[in-house]
Amino acid sequence: MVSTLVVVVVVDAQRQQIVATLDQAIATAHGGDVEQHDSDDSAVRNVAIAVSDPHGLRIEGSMPAGLPDRAVMAAVARSRTVDQRQLEIGGQSYAVRTARHGDDTVQAVLDLREQRAEIARLLQAIIISASIGVVLVAAVAVWLGRRAVRPLAQALDLQQRFVTDAAHELRTPLTLLSTRAQLLGRRLRQDSLSEPQRQAELDNGVRGIVGDAANLTEILEDLLLAADRSIELPDTPVDLAEVARDAVDAAEPAATAAGIKINLAVEHSDAGAVLVSSGSRPALLRAANALIDNAISHARSQVEVGVIAHRHSIDLVVTDDGPGIDADALPRIFDRFASQRSSHSSDPVVGSESGAPAGASPRRHYGLGLALVSDVATRHRGSVAAQNRPNGTSGAMFRLRLPVTTTHSDGRDNRAAQ
């Protein structure tokens, strides 16, 4: 609409300018002669003029073939009106204006090539600018659309990540809880147990189940906190050795059922108890559970869990005697959904003889456990690494490294920089 309005305005201005130029050219004709023009009358100098008076017809300028139109000049001479028309001669357009000037009849002819070229240039500029405008508007629209949709996409992605992470993280402790309850039931059904032994088994089993249920609650709360990126980690030191003990205790029934032995070794520094500088105990327990569960699912007979204190960091090292990690899978082992196993492969952890429910479905693997360990390490300003065991020994080794706080005998804290 704007372009059309501009073209209409320019065309109307050109029409008025053409009439004014022709009228000025007609006004310069006197007595059959055309007056000399000033240097600034360039438009008038481009006008061809034919003057008819009692002495005959005189022509000034380059008159196109077929002009002047004597019939029109004669009609104007009789009617004393003004005739304005546009003619096409030889593929060119001309504006022809015929009028009386005193006792003379004058016909002025103007070549319209410059006006047509100006309109063509204007249309070309409009097309180019309109095309650029359309591209810019489309680009801005796409940018605004993506900017408007980005928060929704982020929210949906966060929701999907929370659902998958929660399902994966709750699966392992639920499996351990179920295994512990099944083993407790099997022991209590043994006829060889005396009443005091039966009571002791019941007390120990119930304490383990209550502890596993409490861990489930902590894990769920930590997952909810982890989903909100604006919430910082608690500024509370965490005893990684205690976390490792709890993880080993929780995994012991499943490991025993699979014929896997778990050994735990804790190395303290001479400076005193070494703690993770600040963090979430449930998150670290989730990471430890995931590493131990991964090791049990690959081990042949033994899993080693170690807590090793250094001057500025503390390591949780989990080693198994399984087949190790494929060289092709090692660079992406902490990526989400990068499991080496089929999603339908089963763990050798539970079976009908080990107290698992009859007809239980094999555990599916989705490649999330190690990715979640990497997320926990990042939240705690630490790192996690994987490698095959050195010296040609079969198996894999995972090392979770975290910054530490060293508690001295006088109660002072020494926060180690990462």
Please write out the topology.
Blueprint: H1 2-27, E1 29-30, E2 33-34, H2 42-45, E3 47-53, E4 56-60, H3 70-79, E5 83-89, E6 92-101, E7 104-111, H4 113-188, H5 195-227, H6 240-257, E8 261-267, E9 274-276, H7 281-298, E10 302-309, E11 313-320, H8 369-379, E12 383-388, E13 396-407, E14 413-415
Parallel strand pairs: 8-10
Antiparallel strand pairs: 1-2, 3-4, 3-7, 5-6, 6-7, 9-13, 10-11, 11-13, 12-13, 13-14
Q: Can you summarize this structure?
A:
The protein is an alpha+beta fold and 418 residues long.
Overview of this structure, please?
- With 418 residues, the chain is α+β, with helices and mostly antiparallel strands.
- It has 2 domains: 2-111, Beta-Lactamase; 225-415, 2-Layer Sandwich (Heat Shock Protein 90), CATH 3.30.565.10.
- Helices cover 47% and strands 21% of the residues.
- The protein contains 8 helices and 14 strands.
- It has helices at residues 2-27, 42-45, 70-79, 113-188, 195-227, 240-257, 281-298, 369-379; strands spanning 29-30, 33-34, 47-53, 56-60, 83-89, 92-101, 104-111, 261-267, 274-276, 302-309, 313-320, 383-388, 396-407, 413-415.
- Strands 8, 9, 10, 11, 12, 13 and 14 form a 7-stranded mixed beta sheet that branches. A 5-stranded antiparallel beta sheet has the order 4-3-7-6-5, with helices on both faces.
- The radius of gyration is 47 Å and the shape is rod-shaped.
- Mean pLDDT is 77; it is low at 31-39, 342-366 and 408-418.
